[in-house]
Write a structure and sequence with these properties.
Blueprint (H helix, E strand, L loop, with lengths): L11 H4 L7 H15 L7 H10 L3 E2 L4 E2 L4 E2 L5 E3 L4 E2 L4 E3 L4 E3 L4 E2 L4 E3 L1 E3 L8 E3 L2 E3 L4 E2 L4 E2 L4 E2 L4 E2 L4 E2 L7 E4 L4 E5 L5
Parallel strand pairs: 1-4, 2-5, 3-6, 4-7, 5-8, 6-9, 7-12, 8-13, 9-14, 12-15, 13-16, 14-17, 16-18
Antiparallel strand pairs: 10-11, 18-19
Length: 187
């Protein structure tokens, strides 16, 4: 039986790709993220949006970004209109993350666009986009894994893990998340 050998790990293909912006931009983002986005400073959301846009994020209108949000790569982030991003959300977006309109990402949720191939001796890096379509709600302390699409108005319940796509208008719960019922929105 083969074993993992991390001495053979090599992600140079990622470092040289268009997904990274080079040392200086990455360093400036790290400092800016820590001061303005991933902090408890009572800064206006308009300043946070301005900074994210300056680093390449595409952001709509009516955004709420609570304190202590951590965004790894703003140049890989696209956010629609009327989106709520709760306190302590971690957007680990080494791949692209697309967030549609009227999406709620509750406190402590994590979006992970990167993972490792545990089947390979070299533990290769895997990068796949995450897509949250319009009206999605990601519950508190939930995790959306690499390559997952949450279709229109899907709900990932508190402390659940989405390891596969979530169908539209369905509520998911557990680890791994399973559909438990239909989402019906009253008028």
């Amino acid at each position: 039986m083969n074993k993992t050998d991390l001495s053979k790990y090599n992600n140079d293909w990622y470092k040289q790709s268009k997904l990274t912006k080079g040392f200086l931009i990455t360093f400036l983002w790290f400092i800016s993220n820590r001061i303005f986005i991933n902090s408890y400073l009572p800064l206006p959301i308009s300043l946070k949006v301005f900074i994210l846009r300056a680093f390449g994020s595409k952001i709509g209108k009516g955004i709420t970004i609570k304190p202590l949000v951590n965004i790894k790569a703003p140049w890989n982030l696209e956010i629609g209109d009327n989106v709520w991003i709760g306190e302590c959300v971690w957007i680990d977006n080494i791949g692209k993350v697309y967030i549609g309109n009227n999406v709620c990402i509750s406190q402590g949720a994590v979006l992970l666009s990167g993972n490792h191939n545990y089947k390979k001796e070299t533990f290769d890096l895997i990068i796949e986009d995450i897509i949250l379509k319009d009206g999605v709600w990601i519950g508190a302390k939930s995790i959306v894994c690499t390559g997952v699409t949450c279709f229109s108005h899907a709900v990932l319940s508190v402390n659940s893990v989405a390891t596969h796509n979530l169908d539209a208008y369905r509520i998911y719960q557990g680890n791994p998340a399973k559909a438990i019922r239909e989402r019906v929105i009253a008028i």
